[in-house]
Amino acid sequence: MRHGGTTLLCTLALLLSACAHAPTESRAVPTGTGDLGVVVERASGSLSVVNTSERRLLGRIEGLGDLSHASVVFSRDGALAYVFGRDGALTRVNLLSRRIEARVAQAGNSIGGAISQDGTLVAAQNYEPGGIKVFDARTLALLADIPAEHAPGQRSRVVGLADLPGHRFIFSLFDADQIWIADVSQPGTPRITRFEQIGHQPYDALLTPNGRYYIAGLFGEDGLALIDLWAPQPRSRKILQGYGRGQQPLPVYKMPHLRGWAVAGRQAWLPAIGRHEVLVVDTETWTEVGRVPVAGQPVFVMARPDGRQVWVNFAVPDYHRVQVIDTPSQQIVRTIEPGKAVLHMEFTPRGEAGWISSRDDNRVSVIDTGSLQTLDTLSVPAPSGIFFTSRAMRMGF
């Protein structure tokens, strides 16, 4: 009995010792990253870190500069976010510790970036000076500087940057009517493939989820430029030419955005420049198969992860609305008014909820995609871009 009592006491002592030395985990610092995300605080130069499963704010990261047109990509494990500021700064932040780990002023005016397939390279697309710069994702050391020089002494602003399989990036030259692919397998000697005369003023682009097609919207003409990247000899061709033929285009109050999330199943859903319409395109033939009249000039046209719904937000004066389109019927099923100045939307990884930022009402609304009812609202100062770590697992994000 005494021996058994001694054994029990020793066991209890060991358990207490283990508990005393076990790390305590704060609720505010989750160990997993799959349900994390960030909301850009446009006016303050900060990020709000959020938990998408619990629909709550975890904390803030300050000191990120001009975030008036910020975008974010994530490391493979979702723990690190790379933030591209309008002031040309590239910042690596740790979402778990909520601290800035590294920061470099790499350009004068930057509007986005991309991360390579294996997560080792980060590329920034720049307006000033025009071109892209490629950095080591671990250290932010500059590895390649690729000026978008399309004529002697003339550089173009770069838009539509996306990652391709391998150490490759594809991007459009707004001022040169060109698309380039940069292979930076050997960063010191990048190899450039140029596609010229692709159409007037490519303003943004998307990469289809399978990485096959790169599509650039054209601001200077009705239509889009498409490249089949799986073709033995890829070339650019125009699609949807003259979709507004015979109609007077409306003034464009905010440039539409294209990204891979606008592809739902076999169809691509695209904003029509200068129209109150969303174009529906068959991705096998790349021909128009429908149009959906919407409340205003569409800015973001985003497909729910399963492709069953497409959500659309708008430029002024209709930027307090979001319309939900049912993709099988191509009908608007709900108009949501979450707040003033809706700037961005993002779906949770498996699409049970959509998050919407309303800048002028200082809030983010979380909407159930089944009932289309509001689940929660979060108070965030002047929110704009919303980015979830699930993007780390997808090309073109």
Give your account of this protein's structure.
The chain is mainly beta. Helices cover 5% and strands 48% of the residues. The chain contains 1 helix and 34 strands. The chain has one helix at 2-21; strands at residues 36-41, 46-51, 56-61, 71-74, 80-84, 89-94, 99-105, 109-115, 121-128, 131-136, 142-147, 149-151, 154-155, 158-164, 168-173, 178-183, 191-196, 202-207, 213-218, 224-228, 236-239, 263-264, 267-271, 277-282, 287-293, 298-303, 309-314, 322-326, 331-336, 342-347, 353-358, 363-368, 374-379, 383-388. The strands form 9 sheets. The chain has a 4-stranded antiparallel sheet with strand order 3-2-1-34, with no helix packed on it. A hairpin with a 5-residue loop joins strand 18 (202-207) and strand 19. The longest helix is centred in the first third of the chain and has 20 residues, at 2-21. The termini are far apart. The model is unreliable at 6-27 (pLDDT under 50).
Short description:
The chain is mostly beta strands and 397 residues long. It has one helix and 34 strands.
